[in-house]
Amino acid sequence: MHMRLMLLGGGSALGQALIRLGAEEDISFLAPRPPDQGWDATSLTQLLDETRPEAVINLAYYFDWFQAEAVDASRFAAQERAVERLAELCQYHDIVLLQPSSYRVFDGSRATAYSEKDEPVPLGLCGQVLWRCEQSVRALCPRHVLLRFGWVLDESHDGQLGRFLARAERESELFLADDRRGNPTPVDDAARVILAVLKQLDCQAPLWGTYHYGGHEATTPLALGQAILAEVRTLRSVAVEQITPQAHAARPDAADEPQHAVLACKKILHTFGIKPRAWRAALPTLLDRYYRHV
């Protein structure tokens, strides 16, 4: 890797997966510790003025964007301003910006898979923030790659998988939607995709734009939960006896979560040669890491 890579959010689950994967291929990242209050416009300005990397991977707000149950609007607003400033800085210093985004920019009203050409209409606050961040990056930093991921699964205890497993350990019955669809995307797979994109950008390929990636085999939260529990039961006993199907409309997050969130991944395949991997195959490793730190 010829480019000097800066990773914001190196301490996040996706940041750690990227560092692990990079180390296997002798690819290193400059991963500065964030200020106590987190990265903001002022601290980012100082950081990039001093370090001048050639590419920035912005995972600074990974947990809030991909794993948190709820985030305060003022916190999101500060993150939005920081992304806008980061895009300005990357353009000014001629730095490549790799910015993650999510299926949440869509409203989930169509049953077929969303392509990069479909118009985003975000439902909830998180999706609206992500969409505005995307627009800032496009407008301010031409040398960018926006990566929209499906349902990202990681080993963090307070993340989406962790919250599900915690409920499974204390409740005998769980309810999950059986009429909601998306692409489970294990964190190691998301890291693989980011690294693959960086490698081609390192070859001076001007492949700027927006790309979708989600794990192979779209599914429902119900089927995903059942697959996770089947794997968990090989490792330990859990309290939950059954997962009961529930309609999307009856779920507490129905107003914010797209019912149909399947992403079409043809563009990233044709442009970068990145093929979707089966999410089921990654569950044993993911759960092993989760339980090792319980």
Automatic annotation (TrEMBL):
Q: How is the cofactor bound?
A: Binds 1 Mg(2+) ion per monomer.
Q: Does the keyword Phosphoprotein apply?
A: no
Cofactor needs = Mg(2+)
**Top-rank taxon:** Bacteria
Where are the annotated coiled coils located? none
- Please list the reactions this protein catalyses: dTDP-beta-L-rhamnose + NADP(+) = dTDP-4-dehydro-beta-L-rhamnose + NADPH + H(+)
Q: Return the InterPro entries for the record.
A: dTDP_dehydrorham_reduct, NAD(P)-bd_dom_sf, RmlD-like-bd
Q: Which UniProt keywords apply?
A: NADP, Oxidoreductase
Keyword NADP part of the UniProt annotation: yes
Q: Give a GO cellular-component term.
A: cytosol
Which Pfam families does the entry link to? RmlD_sub_bind (PF04321)
What is the annotated signal peptide range for this record?
none
Q: Which Gene3D superfamilies match?
A: NAD(P)-binding Rossmann-like Domain, UDP-galactose 4-epimerase, domain 1
Its Enzyme Commission number?
A: 1.1.1.133
> What broad class of enzyme is this?
oxidoreductase
GO terms (molecular function) for this protein are:
dTDP-4-dehydrorhamnose reductase activity
Domain RmlD-like substrate binding, first and last residues per copy: 3-291
What metabolic or biological pathway is this protein involved in? Carbohydrate biosynthesis; dTDP-L-rhamnose biosynthesis
**Family assignment from sequence similarity:** Belongs to the dTDP-4-dehydrorhamnose reductase family.
- Free-text function comment from the UniProt entry: Catalyzes the reduction of dTDP-6-deoxy-L-lyxo-4-hexulose to yield dTDP-L-rhamnose.
Q: What is this protein called?
A: dTDP-4-dehydrorhamnose reductase
Origin species, per record, is Pseudomonas indica
